[in-house]
UniProtKB/TrEMBL annotation:
Gene3D superfamilies linked: Cytochrome c oxidase-like, subunit I domain
Name by which UniProt lists this protein: Nitric oxide reductase
GO BP of this protein: aerobic respiration
Keywords noted in UniProt: Electron transport, Heme, Iron, Membrane, Metal-binding, Respiratory chain, Transmembrane, Transmembrane helix, Transport
Family designation: Belongs to the heme-copper respiratory oxidase family.
Gene: norB
Highest rank taxon of the organism: Bacteria
Amino acid sequence: DKGYWWYVVHLWVEGVWELIMASVLAFLMIKLNGIDREVVEKWLYVIVGLALFSGILGTGHHYYWIGAPGYWQWIGSLFSTLEVAPFFTMVIFTFVMTWKAGRKHPNRAALL
């Protein structure tokens, strides 16, 4: 019973919140930059896939407490570290597209 509860809570944190963050970031890219929605959707699929993959494997760093083999510490730690990489690349992509577009946005502070 507690095992299922633990997985639900951790996969909720590792998966769902990252997907919400990715969709909000994609929405902001479209609204602030005027980037084509199809381009953002293609990036969003990649980011969602990487976030879910790294989030599910990143849960492995908690397996120490249930007596799993030691390699799960390494796998979980590595993929927990990689969880932020998709979002970082999306932010970099936003700044590059903003710079290339040359669009004058009224809220310059948002696009420093």
